[in-house]
Design brief:
By secondary structure, the protein is of the alpha/beta class. It has three domains: 96 residues, Immunoglobulins (Immunoglobulin-like); 328 residues, TIM Barrel (Alpha-Beta Barrel), CATH 3.20.20.80; 79 residues, Jelly Rolls (Sandwich). The protein is built from nine helices and 34 strands. A six-stranded parallel β-sheet has the order 19-13-12-26-25-24, covered by helices on one side. A six-stranded antiparallel β-sheet has the order 27-28-29-34-31-32. Strands 1-8-7-3-4 form a five-stranded mixed β-sheet, with no helix packed on it. The longest helix is centred in the middle third of the chain and has 16 residues.
């Protein structure tokens, strides 16, 4: 003891450094508990209280994590948290049966801050911002192989291919309710999955499945009778460890995840379903929240085609529960047969119509406007590419432009039965042209106003400053412009090639007419250049 005191006085023994965590980063600790439980996922809770720098408190909870390395059994619980204030935080946690946990402090710093979760833009509720205040123009793509793939090298390549240097999408639509068995190359309809081959550009390989499903099950794969062979109260830790890896890879590229098939189930319109039983739904949602809510780049999708799975009362109960339990209020929605119903807890509405075969821009714009309820609209399954079965690349282009001109954000999916081939879509370049053009503008100031243009034309407007007009089949565009102010600069964009060329400048206001360069679709951009 005397030696220790002398060492302290001499400054030779130092306290452990305080852990530093970037703002909106994922703070994590492990807590050991050697007690034996019949079901450690449900029999005990690791409850925690976090105290912000401003002294306000946040209650949260941890989750059972087996041996801490992907193994199903062990004595490890984890506690994750996402700090939302810069400064010194403190926390304490303990188990609900009285078993002690931990307490400590950490510093949240601005250096290396993450973006924070998606938020609805209060200035234009059709749009998204991130918690740090930056604008988020959603460039969404369907990539179901990310959680299915058994080959880690392939998966890493695909993430970079779709969401990194190649195509630059920033919103990933991928399902976690995996239906592909170990070593299988077939989806639920018996058709091979395919994706770009890392070894050769332009070649596509069948995907070998990893067999991972978020909950333990008996047999070779979950049964599509609702999941009668699934133990919904025992998460598969190996599967969730894989989810962590994918989310880390997406987060490194600043990509947000939308979980296609939902958190509690999906229905294939009479072809089978997976559905968490009523008594297990809230425990399942709690596990999702404990494990994934501390990631900034997640959204919550309750179910796929919820209206075939749940009553409206059940739907509202789960949505309200999810909203209340998530301290960070990640955006909540649910995929539906049509468009997600408007509920107070619904943050954005997901569209599905015409089975993804709507190529008409005016129709898609009209649906986007009709479904707007002061919250973003996700044109999810509206204009998908596949021949036969869905749309040609040219039809995808016109349908996608219509959705965006109606104020929605668009999901590109170049897939569907009978081929289910992913990664070789011919409309990639068209979608990139569209996203690069609109995403390069102050799009959050633009709102649909088709009353300013003639029939068959579609208009996004920041009145008096900027206008974007799309017309699907050539002809003339007539637009009603303000009569005062500097001249508008006018430019044509070819949505097929990305080429731009000047149009005649508009020297004054009133109605002006422009002739499209040919009979194909064209975009007219007017900007005062202020």
């Amino acid at each position: 003891m005397i030696a220790l005191l002398m060492a302290l006085a001499a400054g030779l023994v130092r306290e452990a450094p305080v852990q530093r965590m970037p703002l909106w980063g994922c703070f994590e600790i492990s807590v050991a508990n050697s007690k034996s439980y019949a079901n450690p996922f449900t029999d005990v809770t690791l409850a925690a209280t976090f105290i912000r720098p401003d002294r306000s408190r946040v209650s949260f909870w941890g989750f059972y994590d087996g041996d801490g390395n992907g193994g199903q059994t062990g004595n490890v619980w984890r506690l994750r948290f996402m700090p939302d204030q810069v400064g010194t935080w403190s926390y304490e946690c303990a188990f609900s049966d009285g078993t002690p946990g931990k307490s400590d402090t950490f510093d949240c710093v601005g250096d290396g801050a993450k973006s924070g979760p998606l938020r609805i833009d209060p200035a234009n509720p059709r749009c998204w911002i991130l918690a740090d205040g930056s604008h988020f123009f959603a460039r969404a793509f369907t990539a179901p192989e990310l959680f299915v793939a058994g080959n880690h090298t392939h998966r890493t390549y695909w993430i970079d291919y779709f969401f990194g240097t190649k195509h630059r999408f920033n919103l990933c639509n991928a399902n976690l309710l995996n239906f592909v068995g170990v070593g299988d190359e077939l989806n639920w309809q018996g058709t091979p999955y395919k994706a770009p081959d890392p070894a050769q550009e332009g070649r596509y390989v069948s995907i070998s499945g990893n067999g991972l499903f978020p909950f333990l099950y008996s047999g070779t794969r979950p049964l599509f009778d609702g999941g009668s062979n699934v133990d919904w109260l025992r998460p598969s830790i190996r599967c969730w460890a894989n989810v962590d890896e994918v989310l880390h890879d997406l987060e490194a590229r600043k990509v947000v995840w939308f979980n296609h098939w939902g958190m509690i189930g999906w229905d294939w319109s009479g072809n089978g379903r997976l559905l968490v039983p009523a008594a297990a739904r809230k425990p399942v949602l709690r596990y999702w929240i404990a494990r994934l809510a501390p990631y900034w780049n997640v959204t919550w999708n309750i179910a796929g085609e919820w209206d075939e799975l749940l009553t409206p009362a059940q739907f509202d109960e789960l949505g309200t529960f999810l909203k209340e339990m998530d301290p960070w209020k990640h955006p909540v929605t649910s995929h539906a047969l049509g468009t997600t119903v408007d509920r107070p807890w619904v943050d954005f509405r997901v569209q599905q119509f015409a089975a993804g075969t709507s190529a008409d821009s005016v129709t898609n714009a009209g649906r986007a406007s009709a479904d707007y309820a002061d919250k973003p609209v996700f044109a999810f399954e509206t204009s998908w590419e596949a021949t036969p079965g869905k749309l040609t690349p040219d039809q995808v282009r016109t349908g996608a432009w219509g959705s965006l001109m109606g104020g929605a954000f668009y999901l590109y999916a170049e897939c569907f039965e009978p081929t289910l081939t992913w990664g070789d879509g011919s409309a990639f370049s068209y979608i990139a042209i569209m996203n690069d053009f609109l995403g390069g503008l102050a799009y959050w100031k633009l709102k649909p106003d088709h009353t300013l243009v003639n029939s068959g034309s579609l208009c996004l407007a920041d009145p008096g400053r900027e206008y974007v007009v799309y017309r699907q089949s050539g002809g003339t565009i007539t637009i009603d412009l303000p009569e005062v102010g500097p001249a508008f600069k006018a430019q044509w964009l070819d949505p097929r090639t990305g080429a731009r060329k000047a149009a005649a400048a508009v020297e004054d206001g009133a109605k002006r007419t422009f002739s499209c360069p040919d009979a194909h679709d064209w975009v007219l951009h007017l900007n005062r250049g202020e």
